[in-house]
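notes to self, project folder thing:

trying the whole complex as one job this time. last attempt i did each chain seperately and stitching them together was a nightmare. two parts in total, labels are on each line so i dont mix them up again. if this works i'll redo the older ones the same way
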Amino acid sequence: VKLRTYNTLAGQVGVRPQSNFALLSIHGVRSTGDWQKRMAVSLQYAGILYDPLDWGYARLLPIVRPQSTADAHTTKVVTAWKTHDDAGLHVIAVAHSFGTLILARSLQLNPEVILPRIVLFGSILSESFPWRDLAARHQVSKLLNETCPDDPAVRFAHLLRCKWTGRAGCFGFSSTGIVENRVYDWLGHSDAGNLVHVEKVWIPFLLRGVIPPQTTAADHAT
Amino acid sequence: MSLAEFDTLRAQHPEQGMLIAKFEDAVLGILRRNPTAVLDERHLAQVTNSPLADVELLLMELIKAEIIEPRVAWVCPIRHGTALEVRELKDLPLLLEECALCGQSHQYDPADVEIFFVPTARLLESITSEP
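result (full assembly):
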């Protein structure tokens, strides 16, 4: 049987699905990440063991003390990564908004953490974030950065008191090589986490490292 | 003669008793002829005259009951044969260099993965210890 059929039936019968990738996802502030729940089934069908991380519903602290707040939550990421790495799975990640800072700090502070493929959207990281350094340490191989120039939540992220934050979610990363910046006018701050986009763009990228054609607003209307 | 492994399955799913009986006959027949045979869902559907979806579901129940176990095949997208076989999906590499069938390299694609079914050592032992 095809992998998708097997994993569908496994879910019905209560047999462990077949996975070779584990995906960590990290949500942003003032949310516990509805988008994380929406994409769970599609990921499982694709043979991806999904581990959506919940670091709580935070309002003020990430804005007042972004770096120390992010650093405090890196333990969750590292613990989850280690669990899946120990199980022999390839670990990959998706992060949104403030979650992109948590993810980036997890990599900076823990050189043993390897996430070959990463998707970021609504990122509050600085456009000059040093992905090249992380690539040189073989921690990241490919990064898909989904941006929207009109993202209202990212527009003022460069004003946060943290050297790593900025408007990469609006204008992309300046670093070349491992980074692929994609620009969408329909994206807003959180819309990339919808099912059509996840199935057409994220899953092919996360599994095969290839970046399919951009989806348009019309794709999401059908 | 019925094997204990299938009796347990029948007790758990009495509504599928007929299908399980036909299925047991077919599976045991195949394995007595060739203990290393792969249990092919399409072949089983044909010989039991049952819908493929029912057979696939029953195969999953057999995995749950540890009567059979899954194996993972990387199917060459060009020649459509098994290029690599592993016990679990996580054992597959992300890149298959110099495919044994076509000689080319293939990037991992879940669409090229097929799961097939083989008997567990326990089932084979039950079959060989039958009076």
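what i see at first glance: The interface with chain A takes residues 41, 56-57, 60-61, 63-64, 70, 72, 88-92, 94, 107-111, 113-116 of chain B (CB under 8 Å).
need to look closer tmrw
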